[in-house]
Design brief:
117 residues, alpha+beta, ADP-ribosylation fold, three-stranded antiparallel β-sheet, 21% helix, globular, DUF952 domain-containing protein, DUF952
Length: 117
């Protein structure tokens, strides 16, 4: 699969990952035993559902290929398949990182997720 997957992450937590050279996950990821990702279609709902009103977020775009078999597609809400990473995210798999600001309506403003890396 060549389509990017996305992680919504507090900026401070991502800066720690950059310093460490890998992202081991957010507290919710540790609790669930895997790193949660979303597809481009799923990311806005994920932001609204789990990060409503949160500031200082980043959107991390990840190439699935380098993650190999540690990335699994599993059913979640409504039976939709979500990408879950069973291991740390190597920063080499990251295509880009962009701010995820709040718009005037209080919802997060996403960059164009159809763009190439």
């Amino acid at each position: 699969m060549s389509e990017l997957v996305y992680k919504i992450c507090p900026e401070a937590l991502w800066r720690e990952a950059e310093a460490a050279g890998r992202f081991a996950g957010a507290p919710v990821d540790h609790a669930d035993g895997f790193i949660h990702f979303s597809t481009a279609r799923q990311a806005p709902e994920t932001a609204a559902r789990h990060f409503a009103g949160a500031r200082d977020l980043l959107l991390v775009a990840v190439r699935p290929g380098p993650l190999g078999p540690l990335l699994k597609w599993e059913p979640s809400r409504g039976g939709d398949l979500f990408p879950h990473l069973y291991g740390a995210l190597p920063l080499a798999a990251v295509a880009w990182v962009k701010p995820l600001p709040l718009g005037p309506d209080g919802r997060h403003v996403f960059p164009d997720l159809g763009e190439a890396e």
